[in-house]
Amino acid sequence: MTESSPLPFTDLRPGEDAPEVAAAIARVIERGWFVLGPEVEAFESAFAEACAARFAVGVGNGTDAITLALRALDIGSGDEVIVPALTAAFTGLAVIASGATPRIVDVEPGTLTLDPEACAAVVTSRTKAIVPVHLYGQPAEMTAIRRIADRHTLAIVEDCCQAHLATENGVPIGTTSHAAVFSFYPTKNLGGLGDGGAVITGDDAIATRVRRLRNGGQRDRYHHVEPGVNSRLDELQAAVLRARLHFLPAWTARRRQLASLYRRQLSDAVTAVSERDPGHVYHLFPVRLEARDDLSAYLAQAGIGTLIHYPVPLSDQEAFAAYKPEACPVASKAAAELVSLPLHPRLADTDIARVARTVNAFVKAHSEA
Known about the structure:
By secondary structure, this protein is of the alpha/beta class. It has helices spanning 18-31, 38-51, 62-72, 89-97, 116-121, 142-152, 204-214, 235-245, 248-265, 292-301, 329-335, 349-368, and strands at 55-59, 80-84, 101-105, 127-130, 155-159, 167-168, 171-172, 179-183, 197-201, 218-220, 223-224, 271-272, 285-288, 338-341.
């Protein structure tokens, strides 16, 4: 790829995994079983093992995974669930879908993950759970969050939708909480060719209830014992995900290598989101700059794609206005400054050098203007 060639933000087409993906799809088509069959069961087993969890339950998407995990914990109407202000809106929307009320709190300045002090400050008698988000693949400060949860007897449902295979202090995320959830949206570190999600847990009762809730609340065929939903990971996606799971450790290692190159090559005038723990899996590589929009336009002119994650924090979203969220100044400031640079396993070292060089050129020209 030359300096003038387009460098898109990501590439979602099968690459080195293409033969395995094609074989997985052909296997499902040949079998003729497309919902809740052997592929889902095999993927659930493999994914649970990869996450060091006892159980994994496949569902329709990451949003449903949060909602069903909360419902499996009997959290709903009248309850409050703490969520960070800086995340995809779907984290908060999943809480609403469970019937509970989201309590939106600010994030830490360096890592932009849930601020434990802000979390502790909003706990009331109605608070029943915390949903920390491992944002961009960065583990949240779970040690402090667990202390708060233990003090107030709160459930923890970890949002790992951007953090497949991440660890904190060497411990796989999601394995020390009541439940954790993942998304397999195509852009994720482990993505399908469509949507999908999963709940992992070490609790047999939680896993059993999520399985029932995802399938209309059926205890067995045509016997619905509670009002569940229709949120089932389909066989095609499960087969594709199981084929790709084999590649995920190497893809994760490559993401970390590329992030390290960025950190070494970017100008000191560019603030990258801090790395708290080497277990970070770098779903994204966002940087902060007051002239974020100008930088994004400059990179676009150079043929380099960027995206903004996320330009509006939950505390400023119209969808959550009815819940009267308090101001979250750290999240609001970050949202106005963040831009994500290209980072995915297919990029070459030279691609990272090109992006860093272009960013540095913009910073230099901007500072001299």
